[in-house]
Amino acid sequence: MKIDVFFTPLGSRDGDLAGRGVVVIDVLRATSTIVAAIGHGAKAVIPAATAEEAVRMTANLERDGFLLAGERRAVRIEGFALGNSPLEMTPETVAGKTVFLATTNGTPALVAAQGGEPVLVGAAVNFSALVERARAAFGAAADLAIVCAGRERQFALEDAYAAGRLVHLIGEDAAYSKKLISPAQAEKALGKKNKAKIEPLTKEQVGLIRAWIDQGAK
Questions:
Q1: Distance CA 50, CA 28 (A)
Q2: Of 90, 160, 168, 204, which is least packed with CB atoms within 10 Å of its CB?
Q3: Are 18 and 59 members of one domain?
Q4: How does strand 175-179 pair with strand 44-48?
């Protein structure tokens, strides 16, 4: 019984995820947007690693059947109908449509997880359902990979916390590994050595994320 946790998509190599159950976690935004879109009637949400890829994927599709959505560094991509906010994914907007989504962190992680079976989307808003689906996938194969989207290819505390919570809830008897991040790298990513580039989350922000996730976790 094994669970691998990749703190960024860069931690996985070719073949690491093929045929395995995979959970992709992006606590802040992308996966919440996907959950909202599907919950409000979208036919599907197709992740793209870049805006250019999303445009290429839709080049030969009927214009009224899809929506382009996404952001780069929290700014809506020019020419796209929607950004990367769950609040934009209203039934009136997305019902019956296929949403092609390109984001800074979340969708590249989902693209990296292609080949997983199944690939589950992890967010705070669907955490209790995620636990049940991930537990079933882990129980069937005694194997699971958790991929954190991170922030701009770096360690993200909120994703790591969610991954740890998930491991605790579904795999208490499993051996698990943590890949790609060393204590020194984590320290730097959290801003202890490089505050000018990445500020760590405040105690209040961490508490909010913890409460947000835990409220649905059984």
A1: 18
A2: 204
A3: no
A4: unpaired
